[in-house]
Amino acid sequence: MMGLDCNCETRGPRKVRAFEKVLTDVQREIYVENWRISGEELDIGAESDGWHIDKRRLLGGLSDGVDVVEVNSGRLSFVVVPTRGMGIWKGTFDGCFLGWDSPVKELVHPSYVNLEDRGGLGWLSGFNEWVVRCGLESNGAPGEDLIVDNVGNKKSVRLPLHGRIANTPASEVRAFVGLEPPFELGVRGVVYERSMFGPSLKLSTSITSEIGDNCIKISDVIENVGGVPAEMQLLYHCNYGMPFLENGARLIAPLRRVAPRDRRASEGVEEFDSFGPPQAGFVEQVYFFELLGDGEGRTRVLLTNKDETKATSISFSLRQLPHFTLWKNTASLSDGYVVGLEPATNFPNPRRFERERGRVINLKPRENYAAEVVIAVHLGKEEAQGVKDWIKNLQDAVKPKVFKNPTSEFSPM
To answer: Which end of the chain offers a freer environment for a tag, N or C, measured as fewer CB atoms within 10 Å?
Structure first.
């Protein structure tokens, strides 16, 4: 195989042969600036020969020094950004754009993001990803909380919006290609969020697709590598604009309960699951969901355009990610016409509030927490209908409760 690196990985009860290439390993002082592999270099006998993995470093402007890895599995492609916490910048499926058009046009190197700006809203100055993690020490709205400082005293600090993981570069990055069916390919990475006299958390992620498939699987493990217990929060901020989001688009989900975050969200609670056209000056509306799951605790939500010919779904386990948030921001196109679908360990309120409601994970030393989300694209009414039927089967047995006003169980009053 032309001297390419190769190893074996374990999947389930058997070993699967896989090609692997180390792109970054800070500990071993390995860094590959530009690299590419495709079916021309690695014949794996798959039906589709249109796949490739392409790693490069961006130059110039706020993107200077940002690493990107494009994974193209034939019909589906996506761009992973190791420099920005292994988030996914954008993608396409059969020519259909996946992501949104943010006012932040380029990928922003973390060195240009000050999380403390604008009262803790600095995270937004780099926000333009299709899928971005929020966490790991904290996520949600900025808010005051107590930490233990270096001399053992409790100290009040202001935690910034959505935490630090999205602006932390990966320490290890590997590309891989399965050499046996189902020919899985993707990127693995390790990101550390750690501090002296503070939490030491390790994110190990695998972001994969199968050749010719319509979905991406994100598999994460967060480990407390410190010597004392540490709190952890994790939220997957999955963001969509056109063509999935448009006037008449809808969210279809198996609902047990829905609550508006605040008075602004209460104004639109009657139509929380439908979306309007771009509207200049629109003020965001946020809704907190308790979802239904199947016998194994799995659930699925579907975003579909008006005529249900373009849809996308997110499936996940309620045992891992028991809370779900809908972020509606149907502002003008130039200001970011977008909807966020957000499975999480908690609701994105200030951490202190979430702790009081028992929604903050506490990891013992060496303990870990696993989470997985699968994002799929469905083109054509027939494909979307299959997901709708799955959701309907769950919903038929339960009448959802929709709160008209904010409730103290879900959000600060």
So the answer is: C
**Burial class for 177, CB neighbours closer than 10 Å (0-12, 13-18, 19+):** buried
Q: What is the pLDDT of residues 331-374, one digit of tens each?
A: 999 999 999 999 999 999 999 999 999 999 999 999 999 999 99
Nearest to 187 by CA among 37, 86, 44, 75: 86
pLDDT classification of 47: cutoffs 50, 70, 90: low
**Model pTM?**
0.95
Per-residue pLDDT tens over the stretch 175-192: 999 999 889 999 999 999
Domain ranges of the chain: 6-402
Going by CATH, does the domain composed of 6-402 fall within 2.70.98.10? yes
| pLDDT attached to residue 151 | 86
332 vs 33, 246, 315, 329, CA distance in Å?
37, 12, 29, 9
